Amino acid sequence: MKAKIIFLLFLPVLLLSVGCATNPISGKNQLMLFSEEQDIELGKSYAPEIEKEMGGKIQNLTLQNYIDSVGQKVAAVSHKPYFDYNYTALEDKTVNAFALPGGYIFITRGMLEKLESEAQLAAILGHETTHVVARHSSAQISREIGMEVALTVAAGKASGGAMQVAGVARQIIGLGYSRTQEKEADLGGLDYMVKAGYDPQAMVQTMQMLEAESEGGQAEFLSTHPSPENRVEYIAQAIRNRGYQNLNLKIGKEDYQKFVLDELKP
Question: What is the pTM of this model?
Fold first, then answer.
C-alpha cells in the first residue's frame, strides 16, 4: 500500500519525464523515462550497492587512481564530458565491466588480470563510456525495470528498504544490451580511445581475448554484452576506413604492468 501511494504521488513527475532522447552515437531518438539529471542520481544512488554486490573496491589507491586516470582521458573526448565520470576497479573475479547511468563505470579484477596494456584498458573503458554517453543503460532500465527504479530513487530508497535496493542493484548488474547497442559501444569506444591517444588495435585484441574467454565460459562480460556478428571484422574495418592505421599511438604495456598487474599481486 505504501509503495502504491508513493507511486501515485510521483506519477505526474515521472510522466513529465517520459519522452525521447537523441543518441549522439547513432543520431537517432530512443525512448527514455529519465532525464540526464536523473541518470546521475540513479548512478549515484546505486553505485555503493553495486560495489557491495561485486565484492567491494580493490583496496589499492595506486591502482584505482591509474584506472580512473585512463578513464578520465577517454571521458574528456566523449560527446558528454560534463558527466561526473567515476571509474572503479572491483574485487569480483569474473571477467567483466559495466556502466551505470550518469558516468559510474566498473571493471573487475578478473578483467584487469586478462588485459595486457593501457590501450586495452582504454578500449574497455571507452566501450563502457559509450554506453553511458548513448544512455544505453538508462534505455535498458527504462525498458526492463522502469518505474520500480524511478520510484526507489524518487522516494529516497525509503520505500523498499535495503533488501529491495539490493535486489534492484542485482537487476541493474544483469541488464543486457542489444547487439545494435553493442556495436555502437564498440565503434564509439574506438573513436574515443583514438582521440584519447591510444592504439586502436588494442580494441581488436581485447575483443579477441573476450571471445576466447567466452568459449571457455569465463567471460561474464559477453553474457550482458552480446557479441554482434563479425565483431572483430567490423572493428578492424572501421580502423581502416577511419584512417586509424599507423598512427603510432600509445600501447602502454609497461605502465599497465607497473600500475595494474604488479599491484594486483598478493
Answer: 0.86
